[in-house]
Amino acid sequence: VGWAENLNIRIENRDNLGERSAVRALIKAAFGGSDEADLVDQLRGSEHSLVSLVAELDGRVVGHILFSRMWIETPAGRISAVALAPVAVRPDRQREGIGSRLIEHGLELLREHGERIVIVAGHPNYYPRFGFLTEKAKFLHSPFPSEAFMAMELSAGALEGIRGSVVYPPAFGI
Ligand SMILES: CC(C)(COP(=O)(O)OP(=O)(O)OC[C@H]1O[C@@H](n2cnc3c(N)ncnc32)[C@H](O)[C@@H]1OP(=O)(O)O)[C@@H](O)C(=O)NCCC(=O)NCCS
């Protein structure tokens, strides 16, 4: 990690149409399809979008991450959590630490905003390095395979004693 030294991580400029299309193009390139780019386009302007960051290298957008509001439905009521999805790095700049920088920066902002729980469905080899663990999600019911479903506490003990089903914003179609 560390080749991308002059990398700049910042809040996405939603009003800049050129930036929006650059983000869309990189998400499509990273995932090889438009589902995730469509999801971002739907969530970005919605009340559920919390943090949308871009990674910029020499003035070009090479990475993007979105965090949205989600919930855990428990017998005692709904608990707020945050969904990390999706994160994408332009294929020719992967494995340089850009994805890690986006995730770490996003988690830091969420912590500062008082968020306590973050949930991700994704590669079991990638997310544990940031603190996401399947173990932390074992009492959370979700439609994802348990080995790919992970949670982390931004505040110690935030998931203690919490059992319930996860609820995503409608744009996820889950
Ligand atoms: C997943 C992704 C965001 C990671 O970003 P990145 O900048 O490449 O990742 P980093 O440099 O921070 O971390 C590198 C690690 O990511 C994982 N990784 C990155 N690219 C990978 C690939 N093509 N296949 C498998 N693992 C990969 C590896 O575990 C790698 O660790 P290693 O270098 O120790 O092998 C990026 O590869 C991507 O956009 N992938 C396609 C879209 C996607 O799958 N997004 C995640 C959906 S949950």
Bound ions, cofactors and other small molecules, one mention each = coenzyme A
> How much beta, percentage-wise?
25-35%
Q: Radius of gyration, Cα only, in angstroms?
A: 16 Å
Structural class, by secondary structure, is alpha+beta
- How many distinct helices? 3
Number of strands: 8
Task: Kindly report the oligomeric state of this protein.
Answer: single chain
| N→C terminal distance | 34 Å
The overall pLDDT average reads 96
Principal-axes geometry comes out as globular
Main beta-sheet strand count, sense and barrel state: 8 strands, mixed
Helix content: 10-25%
SSE pattern, N- to C-terminal: EHHEEEHEEEE
Low-confidence stretches: none
Structure description:
By secondary structure, the chain is α+β, with helices and mostly antiparallel strands. The protein has three helices and eight strands, in the order βααβββαββββ. α1 (17-31) runs antiparallel to α2 (35-44). The longest helix is centred in the N-terminal third of the chain and has 15 residues, at 17-31. It starts with 6 loop residues before the first strand and ends in a 7-residue tail after the last strand. Coenzyme A binds at residues 30-31, 86-89, 94-100, 122, 125-126. Coenzyme A is lined by residues 30-31, 86-89, 94-100, 122, 125-126.
